[in-house]
């Protein structure tokens, strides 16, 4: 129902609060009313009953079944007693004829009811004033010889009716007041939500800089604002990275194309000798190869963007996988006359994706060989530490400067290129390593010193 009303959050809180308050107040009011009604009722009945017993004492009967009222006695008491509420008394004989009555009745009479109503409190009226009366038979030797009626005005009872009206009027007023108060406080406490709405309205794809001001109280809304802000940070970073990647990719793809185009344009300007043609064509083929490799790597990066479903877990014999990959690069290591040594403490098996782990290892081996100096040493270790299997690959080559170390996993980043312009690369290998290791929950650590060497550690959880 509340949903159908389409109330604002603030009004909904106030509304829910009011419903529970209404039930509670209603119960309290009913209780108060019933208690007051019961005690006023009881009080009137007690007073009437007191009067009845007093007046019964004023009656005496004789042997002829006529009874004598000590009129003087009860009239005297009538005059002396200071009663706030007037008491009406009337005596009837057994035939229903009046014997005597209190003077305050004047011309009026109290109604003698049939015997079924004897000794019962009955509400009636006298001169349109509401009264409560009780009648009791006057007995002589267990024989009814007359009736005594005592009545009292019900003015006291009016207090109950007044109370009823007061409660009826105050109930909606209290609820209205509570609703307004609840609405005010609800509005105040959800003010940060309003700020969140306003701020989020300002945030667009092109304006991701705005952040939600944090509320003063460290409550749930503070945590919500903080979470939204950190989400915005991550989105902004992702978008920035995406923009950067696209810009870098197009630049990196265009460069070899421009180089090839330039070379060819120079080549056709005038006739050249065969050797010159061969040299330029070889150069272009190398550039095309580089371009090909880059496209392959870009496709690989795109393919494994958060694609957990493509991961095929199987048991991998790690020692063999490393040696296989090493063998693929044997030509290169021989060319540079590198001393490649393996130190495997035992046979290691892991549960992972063979193809993807193989890409990680081959990239690291390729780099270690590529960035090693001629005749350098490359050491591969495989060992276990607690519940981790650690593969390290260490070279003694060009190394990475401290300021570049945290950027080498970024796409297209190539560190200290001017130090070693002869070493070609795309800057994509390590970003592929990073993406795949994230996908497979593998930790990669790097330790390097410029001109001394680099050590990559690949940590597999057992
Ligand atoms: P690249 O194709 O340039 O090798 P990578 O993503 O594989 O791209 O590596 C990024 C950068 O990290 C490289 O340009 C290089 O500067 C540095 N790097 C990676 N591995 C090594 C290493 N073993 N020794 C020195 N520098 C390295």
Describe it for me?
The structure is a single chain. With 462 residues, the protein is α+β, with helices and mostly antiparallel strands. The chain is 51% helix and 20% strand. It has twelve helices and 14 strands. It has helices at residues 2-5, 9-57, 71-80, 158-189, 191-202, 220-269, 274-303, 318-328, 330-335, 354-370, 402-405, 429-440; strands spanning 59-61, 67-69, 87-93, 98-101, 121-126, 129-140, 143-153, 314-317, 339-344, 349-352, 377-385, 388-395, 443-449, 453-461. It is rod-shaped. It starts with a helix and ends with a strand.
Strand-helix topology:
Layout: H1 2-5, H2 9-57, E1 59-61, E2 67-69, H3 71-80, E3 87-93, E4 98-101, E5 121-126, E6 129-140, E7 143-153, H4 158-189, H5 191-202, H6 220-269, H7 274-303, E8 314-317, H8 318-328, H9 330-335, E9 339-344, E10 349-352, H10 354-370, E11 377-385, E12 388-395, H11 402-405, H12 429-440, E13 443-449, E14 453-461
Parallel strand pairs: 9-11
Antiparallel strand pairs: 1-2, 3-4, 3-7, 5-6, 6-7, 8-10, 11-12, 12-14, 13-14
Helix pairs in contact: 2-4, 6-7, 8-10, 10-12
Bound molecules: adenosine-5'-diphosphate (ADP).
Adenosine-5'-diphosphate (ADP) is lined by residues 367-368, 371, 395, 397-400, 408, 413-415, 425-431, 454.
